[in-house]
Design brief:
about 80 residues; about 60% helix
Length: about 80
């Protein structure tokens, strides 16, 4: 799965979790860009991403994420480790 495929899947997740069909995230998108992306939404986004991609993140892995691009990189890392 490449970056653009992961980004497209994440965009669907963000639209659902943040309840906004007009969202168009990019690799540079961060919580500061969306009023509805608060700490609870962040947890829901991470859980939804884990479920969608069939991976599990450690708390230490997600605590330091600064933007969607870093989340994409983490998902790719987990998918590669999974085989």
């Amino acid at each position: 799965m490449n970056d653009q495929e992961i980004l497209a899947a994440l965009n669907d997740i963000f639209r659902d979790v943040l309840d906004d069909d007009d969202i168009r995230i990019t690799e540079n998108s961060s919580a500061a860009d969306y009023d509805s992306w608060d700490s609870l939404a962040n947890v829901n986004l991470i859980v939804a991403a884990e479920m969608r991609f069939g991976v599990r993140f450690r708390t230490s892995e997600v605590e330091g994420l600064r933007n969607v691009g870093e989340l994409i990189a983490l998902i790719k890392k987990q998918l590669l480790a999974k085989g």
